[in-house]
Design brief:
The chain has eleven helices and seven strands. It is of the alpha/beta class.
Amino acid sequence: MVGRGELTDKAWTQIEPLLPASGRGGQWRDHRQVINAILWKLRTGAPWRDLPERYGPWKTAHERLRKWTMDGTWEKILDAAVVKDDAVGAIEWIVSVDSTVVRAHQHSAGARKKGAAHRQSKRSPFDGECLGRSRGGLSSKIHLAVDGRGMPMRVILTAGQAGDNPQLVPLLDGIAVARLGGGRPRSRPDAVVADKAYSHPSTRVLLRGRGIRFTCPERADQKAGRAAKGSRGGRPPAFDRVEYAGRNVVERCINRLKHFRDLATRYAKRAAYFRSELIIAAIVLWLQ
């Protein structure tokens, strides 16, 4: 019997063929049991050591999360779910982008700062783990791109004080949906919808060069600057109010992701693990 928040039989049927075979040294603990353990942790936000006995040892679940983070298994599962939806024409290629700040628990700042993957910057000692200082303390920022239905297509994690606009192009560049019939993956949306935080002349020029329609309101300072130039300021950028009204799908997706308490507050010390938790939550949304 499937418990609350656990994988359904239908979802497991789609996931099972994508999982790695048994590792060295013998048979792994049942994959479905371990994934359900990770989902329980995501849903409740409880410490790993409080994992119920029915899910097996907590160290096994944590190690499986770590191992599949390192070998890209979670991204592979998400990509497969997206490709299957695109094959039946379900994906709506009007991409909406937005970001949200997640308060980081004090325990998330305890990661050891060793190795190239966790190199510190001079600006912030937490940059290597996507942690930043703000008035509320430590925080991380989730940058999200969704399709026209609000289904997550791409997620990027940065420090909490990072700006939104610099992450727009990396978000779009990370979208690549393979085609079942062969050929290059599709990566260019029909349109991108964003709020004023992404309004910048260079962004508009770049997306225009890629042939992507950009629906974004112009900021007041940009309007004033254009007006001050008179006829040299050019015409205001096109803005479709009806299309912009559909941008709420990305905000609704963020709300759905934050139903997982382990994502509403960051407890993970490693940014890589927290990003994997975001991807796992996205997989759940695609398979529902």
